[in-house]
Write a structure and sequence with these properties.
The chain is an alpha+beta fold and about 325 residues long. Helices cover about 20% and strands about 30% of the residues. The chain contains 5 helices and 16 strands. The strands form 4 sheets. The chain has a 6-stranded mixed β-sheet with strand order 3-4-2-1-16-15, covered by helices on one side. Strands 5-8-9-10-14-11 form a 6-stranded mixed β-sheet, covered by helices on one side. A hairpin with a 5-residue loop joins strand 6 and strand 7. Helix 1 runs parallel beside helix 2 and helix 3 packs across helix 4. The N and C termini lie close together (about 5 Å). The model has no long low-confidence stretch (mean pLDDT about 95).
Length: about 325
Amino acid sequence: MSLRLTTYNVLANSMSDARFFKVSDPSVLSLAHRMPKILRELQPCFDREDIICLQEVDVTLAASGLHQAFIANGYYPLTAHYSTMPGRDYFGNIIAFPIKKYNLLTYGQCKIGDHLFIPKDYTNPIAPQPFADGKPRSVTCDVYQEAAKRDTALLHATFEDKSSGKKFVVNTYHMPCAFWWPSVMTLHVEALLRKVKEFSNGLPYILLGDFNLLPHTPLYQFITEGTITDPEHIPSPEWKHAPVSSLADLRTLSGFPFLSTNCARNANDSIFEGALDHVFCSPDFSDHAISYTAPTGEMPNETDGSDHVPVSCTLTLN
C-alpha cells in the first residue's frame, strides 16, 4: 500500500505580525494576502489525495477559507486547537484526510506536558540559561516546570485504507520553540516518543510536523536513535529517559537533503534559515520519495503565505 503525506506549518494569523517578523511590505503579513497562497500550496495535496498535517492553525485562520477548502475537496479535518496562551487565538494542529480513500478508526489529542518524566527528588538550580546567540536568559522556574507549562499537544489518528484494508497511525506535533533551553525540548521529545509508541497499538506509524530542531543535532538523534547523552540536553543528574523498547522506533526518510524548510527575518532583524519540518516513520514503511521546494528568500513574502514550506513524502507500507 502506497500513501502520500504532507506536513506544513501555515503560520498562525495571531503570529503573523510585526512582533515576530520584519518585512519591507507589511501587507504580506495579512491573512487576506496569505490565505490564497496557503490554499495554492495545498491544492496539489488535495489533487494527490495526501493526508495533510498542518501546524499553527488558529481559529481565525481555520475559519477564513481553510475548512471550506477541505470540504470542497472531499476532506475531513481533525483539529486540536490546544493553545491557551493569551493572544494566540487557540492555535493548534490539523490532520486532514480524503474521505473516499480512508476510514477513520480512532482520533485523539494528548498534551505532552502532562506526561513528562520528572524525578521525585532532583537537583536543578534556577539559573540563567544560554540564549541562542550566547546571551543569558533569566528564568524564574526550573526546567521541569518550564516544560510542563507548555500546552503543545500531539494529535494522532488511526486510519484504514479502503482499498487494501491496511491500518496505520498518523501523528503530528509542533515542538515548543525552546531552543534557548535544550533540556526543555529533551523532556518533550522523550514524552512524545513514549506516547507515539503507546498510541500506535502495534500498528505502523508516522510522525511528522514542525519540530523546531535541526538535523544532526542531539535532539534529532534522540528521535531517530532513542537515546541522548549530550550534557547540555540532560534536564538534571537524576533524569533518564524510558527504555528504548518503550519509545517509538522512528527513522528519517532516506535521501532527505536537509535543506531549509523555513526562512524568516525576525523582528530583531536577524535571519533564521534551517530545516525544522520533518517526517519520521516506523520500520514498517519504505519510502519512495520526499519532495519540497526550499525557500529562496525571507518569508512570508509576495508569493509565500507562511514562513515555512510544505514537505511531502510517498511511503509504502511493507
